[in-house]
Amino acid sequence: MSRAGRRGIGPDGLVIVDKPAGLTSHTVVSRVRRFAGTRRVGHAGTLDPMATGVLVIGVEKATRLLGHLALTTKTYQATIRLGQSTVTDDAEGEVAATASAAHIARDALDDGIAKLTGDILQVPSKVSAIKVDGKRSYRRVLDGEDVELAARPVTVSSFTVHDVREAVAADGTPLLDVEVTVECSSGTYIRALARDLGADLGTGGHLTALRRTRVGPYGVDQAHTLDELEESFAVLPIGQAAAEAFPRWDVSAEQARQLINGVRQKAPGLGAGPIAVFGPEDRLIALVEERRGETKILAGFVS
Predict the structure, then answer these.
(1) Numbers of helices and strands, H then E, in the chain
(2) Could you name the active-site residues (predicted)?
């Protein structure tokens, strides 16, 4: 991890932020723009204001990595409250319904979670950022529209319960708080898992806490708080970031020259998905993918 004592002098690369609760991802990106001294900053995957944890931010040329990083798996720690549903499927929304969760046995809980594990079809939360006819779904909900989103395929690789605690609603209704870890594909809504688990159990459910602990190879142990970044701006250099996220292919100087000039090369046989191409002196040249035995450039990093 490269650190710069002054803003705006760090290399192209990724900034791994431990986002605090209460801030939007857009606000965090704005802070990083100020720290880095550049407007060329973006992020790989939004976190809701309530959520904390790993937010991967690209600076300068590393913004070209972001669309590909967003396709990786993510890991979350969450608290699901059974017995209450909310209009937003999380604790930031008004309670829509309350029902006792006192009758829920552990085997019923495990069965409900099993139904939401693996390759599933998930209807995203209505208050998501998904666009419906060019307008964000949450904006339509705020404007009083009844939004119906289509189910989409997602993969929940693991959905593990760590603890189950009794809780009580303001009106005295028995509730259950379930601590879980979820590993899933990009595009999976943990709020929707909480909603669907509660619906399956007949009690309703919503999220009361959410922390993202990993995005692809980047874990919370690599992340920096905004206060730390303001004090000393930390960047994961673009070459190191690409090598950690994608299969690596080292090429000769001549192959690098040809790739830079748009000449396709014989594919290295490293499988589907982006491949990070490095030339001499450990220089990141491009991201490529294999098409019919040849390389196709997804993003170039030599200007």
Answers:
(1) 8, 19
(2) 48
Whether residue 89 contacts residue 123, with contact meaning beta carbons closer than 8 Å, is answered with: no
SS (H, E, C) 95-122: EEEECCCCCCCHHHHHHHHHHCCEEEEE
Compute how many other C-beta atoms are within 10 angstroms of the C-beta atom of residue 219. Answer: 15
Q: Which pLDDT band holds residue 187 (cuts at 50, 70, 90)? A: confident
> Which phi and psi (to 5°) does residue 6 adopt?
-115, 155
State how far the Cα of 205 lies from the Cα of 189, in Å rounded to an integer.
14
* Residue pair 83/204 in contact by the 8 Å Cβ criterion: yes
- State the CB neighbour count (10 A cutoff) for residue 49: 17
Output the pLDDT for position 5.
44
In this predicted model, what pLDDT tens digit does every residue of 194-252 receive, in sequence order? 999 999 999 999 999 999 999 999 999 999 999 999 999 999 999 999 999 999 999 99
Element (H, E) at 131: strand 131-132
pLDDT above 70 as % of the chain: 89
Q: Hey, what are 303's tokens?
A: 């200007």
Residue whose structure tokens are 């220089």: 283
Tokens of residue 86, six digits:
């909310």
Could you give the domains of the chain?
A: 2-71+216-237 (3.30.2350.10), 74-212 (3.30.2350.10), 246-300 (2.30.130.10)
Structure tokens at 100: 């006792």
**Order of strands across the sheet that contains 275-279:** 248-250, 275-279, 283-291, 294-300
Please give the positions annotated as active site: 48
3-state secondary structure of 24: coil
Pick from 192, 183, 187: which is nearest to 127 by CA?
192
